[in-house]
Design goal:
Helix content of chain B: over 70%
Number of strands of chain A: 4
Shape of chain B: elongated
CATH class of chain B: Mainly Alpha
Strand content of chain B: under 5%
Largest sheet of chain A: 2 strands, antiparallel
Distance between the termini of chain A: 61 Å
Radius of gyration of chain A: 23 Å
Structural class of chain B: mainly alpha
Distance between the termini of chain B: 17 Å
Oligomer: heterodimer
Strand content of chain A: under 5%
Order of helices and strands of chain B: HHH
Shape of chain A: globular
CATH architecture of chain B: Up-down Bundle
Helix content of chain A: 55-70%
Number of helices of chain A: 6
Number of strands of chain B: 0
Number of domains of chain A: 1
CATH topology of chain B: F1FO ATP Synthase
Number of helices of chain B: 3
Strand order of the largest sheet of chain A: 1-2
Order of helices and strands of chain A: EEHHHEEHHH
Largest sheet of chain B: none
Structural class of chain A: mainly alpha
Chain lengths: 270, 76
């Protein structure tokens, strides 16, 4: 049983000083697929007799749209819906790309020795690299998505209630009541503010590791199961991974929506 | 003791203890959600959405343990 699993995305080539990894290449392909699909879907939109494709797309969009209407409300949905749906569709297609049949098969042997392989044994000289890899199974992509999501939340909080209110949420040193209880309460409030600041950073970690762990563990599971049993035996696990990919995209989107709504409305109620 | 043996034991112990909490948490969330649906079947949609959200939070902790185990196994 000879299984090769790499946590790190393997580099394919170098381009103008940047390293092109296989997950980066796959994310470019996913973006190309989404853009082509969006272009051709938007070309022939009709109001009355909608085609089947248009119906399916309207259904998908309406699921996320109604979710964001319930969580955000109509006014903010109009502003933030495009990026929410972009998160959903990018993560969904990235998760599902790793389940396509050719992804684990196409390999590429780099002809030159890279500088990273300093400890070379007999085996690593002929090290062949997968060409495609699901983008979200690479920690870089998921950390990037998580940082974009958390920055979006901060931007929304600053835009909707101003910079002063935003800073007051985290650094709250005002003494409101008089006497000892007032100072005690101010101390507790400042501590809670620092904890809120730290929880923004743990949001990045939680978002990225949830997505990365689910998709990468799914990849490992598929590889191990397909090394153990016939190809028919991998069918339930592929079904599980399809389901998990959908759920993880949905959960990422919904958590972004929920944190967005909390950060927008938290300064209005005080 | 042997380093590789300790590594293997550590991986197994991480997964054994690390998935116990999230599994219990998900079971409790599911049971409360089902109870709420039983009391008020009209609010099934809202309860289902909130339940999926809460389960994702609980499951992420189990995924943290899985990531540590995978790192221990595949990155020496």
């Amino acid at each position: 049983m000879d299984i090769e699993i790499a946590i790190k995305a393997e580099t394919l080539t170098h381009f103008l000083g940047l390293t092109i990894t296989n997950s980066f290449l796959t994310s470019l392909i996913v973006i190309a697929i989404i853009l082509t699909f969006a272009y051709y879907a938007g070309k022939s939109l009709r109001l009355r007799k909608a085609s089947k494709t248009q119906n399916i797309l309207e259904f998908i969009i309406s699921v996320i749209y109604s979710l964001s209407l319930t969580i955000l409300g109509k006014k903010f949905t109009k502003i933030y819906f495009p990026i929410i749906f972009s998160f959903f569709i990018f993560i969904l297609f990235s998760n599902w790309f790793g389940l396509l049949p050719f992804v684990n098969g196409i390999k590429y042997t780099p002809t030159h020795q890279s500088e990273e392989m300093t400890l070379e044994t007999e085996k690593t000289k002929e090290h062949s690299v997968h060409v495609f890899r699901a983008p979200t199974s690479d920690l870089n992509t998921t950390i990037a998505l998580a940082i974009i999501s958390v920055l979006l939340i901060q931007y929304a909080a600053i835009k909707e209630s101003g910079l002063a209110n935003y800073i007051k949420k985290y650094f709250n040193f005002k003494v409101v009541k008089k006497g000892f209880m007032g100072k005690f309460e101010a101390g507790i409030n400042s501590f809670v503010g620092i904890l809120e600041l730290m929880s923004e950073f743990t949001k990045v970690i939680a978002f990225s590791f949830r997505l990365f762990g689910n998709i990468f563990a799914g990849e490992v599971l598929i590889v191990v199961i397909s090394a153990l049993t016939y190809s028919i035996g991998t069918l339930p696990f592929l079904g599980l991974e399809v389901f998990v990919g959908l759920i993880q995209a949905f959960v990422f989107t919904m958590l972004t929506l929920v944190f967005l709504s909390v950060s927008i409305s938290s300064n209005h109620s005080h | 003791m042997n380093t590789e043996a300790m590594n293997a034991i550590a991986i197994a112990v991480i997964m054994g203890f690390g998935t116990f909490g999230p599994a219990l948490g998900i079971g409790l969330i599911g049971s409360k959600a089902l109870e709420a649906v039983g009391r008020n079947p009209e609010a099934t949609d809202k309860i289902q959405t909130l339940m999926i959200l809460a389960i994702a939070f609980a499951e992420a902790i189990g995924i943290f343990a899985l990531v540590v185990a995978l790192i221990l196994k595949f990155v020496a």
